[in-house]
Design goal:
179 residues; mainly alpha; 1 helix
């Protein structure tokens, strides 16, 4: 019996060891499964976080690209505003020049009208003077003709006077010859 008892104790110890090993194996298996499940959960969480990080990064990249686009658009708007301001300034300058040109045109128009009036007045004065000169010329011609006639008559009278003694003699000689 001792042998049986010792054998029994030994079997009992062996059974306890096996039972403890089974328990340990079950604990290890459960712990392993728990760890695997935990790792899988962590892996899934990591994947989700990684995907979220990718989405966030993509959104960030898109936001950065949008920011750059807005920056470029802003620069374009500022450039357009500068060009608009420059064009406004040019428009005001041109309007000022147009106003100046219109004032100059009005001044020259007035001067042209005044010059035309002066020219018309001068034409009338020249026409009046021409009429006066024509009348004077006619009068001077008449006077010249009269003067020439008078001069001719005076010459003739002088000639007659100078020739008078000869004529008188001739008349006397002609009378005596005819007697």
């Amino acid at each position: 019996m001792r042998y049986n008892r010792a054998e029994f104790k030994r079997h009992k110890v062996i059974d306890e060891i096996i039972s403890d090993q089974k328990e340990a194996n079950e604990l290890l298996t459960n712990n392993y499964r728990s760890l695997v499940n935990g790792l899988e959960e962590r892996r899934q969480t990591f994947i989700k976080e990684h995907e979220q990080a990718l989405v966030t990064r993509q959104a960030s990249d898109e936001a950065q690209a949008e920011k750059e686009r807005y920056k470029l658009e802003n620069a374009n708007v500022l450039n357009l505003e500068e060009r608009r301001d420059h064009l406004e300034k040019m428009k005001l300058d041109l309007e000022g020049q147009v106003g100046q040109l219109q004032a100059d045109a009005s001044k020259w128009q007035f001067r042209a009208e005044t010059a035309q009036e002066d020219l018309d007045r001068m034409k009338q004065q020249v026409a009046d003077l021409n009429k006066q000169y024509e009348q004077r010329l006619k009068s001077d011609r008449i006077d010249l003709e009269k003067h020439q006639q008078l001069t001719q008559q005076a010459r003739q009278a002088k000639l007659d006077k100078w020739l008078h003694p000869f004529k008188f003699r001739q008349q006397n000689t002609g009378k005596s010859v005819g007697k």
